Amino acid sequence: MKPNETHREGRIFARGKRGILSIAWYDDEGEHRESTRSTDPRVADKLLGKKLAEKGEGKVYHAAAKRITVGELLEMLRDHHEAEGTKSWRRFEQCARHLRGHFGAEAKAVGITFSKLKGYVRARRRDPKRPAKPATIRLELSVFAQAFKIARQEEKLAAAPEFPTVKVENVRTAHFTDIELAALLDRLPAPVRAVVEFGSQTGWRLQEVLSRRWSAVDFAAGTVRLEPGETKSGKGRVFPFGKSPRLAALLDKQRQERWRIERERGVEVTHVFHREGVPIRDIDDIWKAACRAASLTDRRFHDLRRYAAMRLVRAGVARSEAMELLGHETESMFLRYAINDVPMLERAVEKLAVLDASSVVGTLKRDA
């Protein structure tokens, strides 16, 4: 096909003395141009045909796409999460800060390639001040990938780069034993001890516990609820504390304390867990001090979910029921939390020993 010739809603033309061919095609926004970096008409014809075919498939090309910057890309993502009411945006913003710092807020989004993303991984791993862990790098890349996805959904970009895979092998296995948990509870002040005890019994996440208001507690039904939108999965959850004397006593004690403060001070106590009527927002410093006092290292509140999962398994609770109580959506995730419980396994082996003692095989072995 000759330069300057029209080709199905597009055209091929030569620019400059070197005869490099360019293509142009049209949509509702007007004309879009792209260099073929070749003087071969066949190359230009093939590229134009590809662009027109993609246009026919509904892909939209914007003249402004090449001007979209990394900073603008991340702002689109922020706007999206604010509109969705995402609770974890603070962590996303930390990721965005690293991405802007490496690539530059003014860098063009279309210039981000697989090779440059691999360079980002290397740079984060080798940071002389604070090398990033694989899980952190993977999260940062997933945030960037989501930013590109949102831009494509909003028809600001026509394509996104391929992202490298970062292998993570840091599945956490730390958990509490009954003795360790008792030692920790003994070293906590009463308001925080109630939080930790409730978390160890229910396996609920820290913010799920701290955010509980009295409106979520039904003493008549013996239930405490997490409403849809208050959980990580977005699904509601209920825990029937009325069937647990220990939990029922704990919540009743919190209720008695609530009534005392309201009666003495004339103020409303809205949250189940509080310090003299003031909602508890954070327990980090108190938690760390109590762990040190109990000689416990590398322990987090989230490890109580693993402790709760182990207790449910030990009690013989059906896996589906345990998953419902803890809020796990998949068996693989539940099994990550319900790690081997040595006392339970020991009891299982003892049962095998009893069976072995009474079996033919066991008899033959003793005779030998």
Notes on the protein architecture:
- This protein is an alpha+beta fold and 368 residues long.
- It has three domains: 5-61, no CATH class; 67-153; 178-337, hpI Integrase, Chain A (Orthogonal Bundle), CATH 1.10.443.10.
- 51% of the residues lie in helices and 10% in strands.
- It is built from 15 helices and nine strands.
- The protein has helices at 41-56, 70-84, 89-103, 114-125, 134-153, 178-186, 190-202, 206-210, 245-265, 284-293, 303-314, 319-326, 331-337, 342-358, 360-367, and strands at residues 5-6, 10-15, 20-27, 30-38, 217-218, 223-226, 237-239, 274-275, 278-279.
- The chain has a four-stranded antiparallel beta sheet with strand order 1-2-3-4, covered by helices on one side. Strands 5-6-7 form a three-stranded antiparallel beta sheet. A two-stranded antiparallel sheet has the order 8-9.
- A hairpin with a 2-residue loop joins strand 8 and strand 9.
- Helix 2 crosses helix 5, helix 7 packs across helix 11 and helix 14 (342-358) packs across helix 15.
- It is elongated and about 85 Å long.
- Residues 1-7 and 361-366 have low confidence and may be disordered.
Structure summarized in a few sentences:
The chain is α+β, with helices and mostly antiparallel strands. The chain folds into three domains: 57 residues, no CATH class; 87 residues; 160 residues, Intergrase catalytic core (hpI Integrase, Chain A), CATH 1.10.443.
